[in-house]
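Chapter summary example: a protein plus pyridoxal-5'-phosphate.
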Amino acid sequence: MNNRLTELFKKKDQEVLNIYFTAGFPKLEDTVRIAEALEKAGADILEIGMPYSDPLADGPTIQQSGQVALNNGMSIRKLFEQLEGVREKVSIPICLMGYINPVLQYGMDNFLKKASELGVDGLILPDLPMDEYEELYKQKFEEYSLSNVFLVTPQTSNERLKRIDALSDGFIYVVSTNSTTGNETKSTEDNTAYFERIKSAGLKNPTLIGFNIKDNSTFLNASKFANGAIIGSAFIKAIEGQENLEEVIDGFVKKVRG
Amino acid sequence: MNYSVDDKGYYGKFGGAYIPEMLHPNVEELVENYLKIMAEPDFQEEFRALLKDYVGRPTPLYFAKRLSEKYNTKVYLKREDLNHTGAHKVNNTIGQILVAKRLGKKRIIAETGAGQHGVATATACALMGLQCIVYMGEVDIERQKPNVERMKLLGAEVRPATSGSKTLKDATNEAIRDWINNPVDTHYIIGSVVGPHPYPDMVARFQAVISEEIRWQLKEHEGTEEPDYVIACVGGGSNAAGAFYHFLDSENVKLIASEAAGFGVDSGKTAATTALGTEGVIHGSRTLLMQTEDGQIVEPHSISAGLDYPGIGPIHAHLFDSKRAEFFSITDDDAYASGVQLCRLEGIIPALESSHALAVLDKKQFKPDDIVVINLSGRGDKDLQTYIARGGY
Ligand SMILES: Cc1ncc(COP(=O)(O)O)c(C=O)c1O
């Protein structure tokens, strides 16, 4: 089975739009419905958040969506149930994003096996250390054709960037500023020099810029320096409290694309 | 068995640095510098001088005569309650602020539960003229009011943590998020032997002064440096790590840790981590923690804000796992009763955290000639509101 992320970037290397949403939010059974609507509306990659009680890298918007999802009864087991048969409905790449503790509790081996069987293409586990990944899990990821997506930040040295590039095979997640997700106060910072540094680093992997990408102008600007961008908090805000998800999602994606 | 941290930051299978990339440069900077800085003669000189002249060390090792009579054994109290600011926490904040200064940091953040670590951090910042922001759970702000005002009086800003159980775990989350958002000029003074490597080791080394003193003080009292038992309470476990540190390799010294059982281990309102916990990752460290089957962290409960934490430091997970330390779970009621008893028998009002260590005297039979050192980690002034609310004394 080919990895859909790799296939996607072979065909498309500009303005790739990855949308994050929290599994089980706003309602428990919305997960696959949102995935389908996003594909229809024109998203290129889905990043499905596995809610966690203590999401250290997330700001209030994603924290709260996770809390709602947990209160709704979301769990890894539940999510895997929901994703049963998802590949008959959704064909774009799917990444699961979450924190290491629930995954370890599920069991890394079982988790990778199950995710791969369901048609997941990549994992984003921000608090999985690089050394542990390389030593303990890399082989398993490869065995199951799952990409492990690493984050880089303005503080990531060029040397470390090279190592991350060598260990990655899907794409590299370029965190736009030093911040938790959805931190509005950081959106005015000028990141051009940092983005230029990443762009000219000669990476073998595609890059997507995320954190504080929220609309057409931030998406297009990010796409100048990377293969595309990731939207999270802004999308969560857009669907919060909405009944007619398909319409809202279609409108959101069209607006971002411009 | 080795009880020190290895060069990858692990105690046995516990520890490590499970942190998002955003924190990597800060943590890496510490890993590369903390031992070097701590070994510098001028650092040691400044640290030791402040502990002596400012904190008031050494703290007494006090033979508690009436308590000893009651339990028919020899009980010594290590009087960390007599430190400036009223708890052991200041040993660590003085150490870390000197590290932060040498790293050129301008802004200090901290989490606090009981408020003791927050007060100790605010104190160190006032002393060094650095900006100080303390994250504290909304619930703790309510139950530890005097400490909130002390922090403000000392010039710190207290920011409420409003997520989750609104206690220590959530305050720690907020402090970590602050650090992610301020990676260059800020040092995070963690208040216990928790968090990513090198924090557990760094904090243990700063608190190790407790057992260093116990050794020579006990020699003066008893002609031996080594007691039969050392007992300390464990929230994250910094006072326990400090009290155990220089005895870890002395196999004749039995180590006892007491954790908070809250309403009881099986009550659903507890912080008894080793009794109920399983392996996982909390606040960047692989350790034992209370969690659901789905790996969601369980909200803890304890009468004492300082023990109201769903994990323990990796060193203690290792001491538990290797059976080097024996763990007791002490209920709110038992801790409270032991606290009141110390007031009456020895004229010392203990912190409710420390009362959990005292309560071990009722749980375990000691021999008449056993030497039992209990680390009295802090004083009870901050807990007056809780003492008053419970009453019955
Ligand atoms: C007096 C006292 N003892 C103990 C603790 C628990 O912390 P640790 O387990 O790190 O010693 C606290 C924490 O606030 C405290 O104030």
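Key point: The radius of gyration of chain B is 19 Å.
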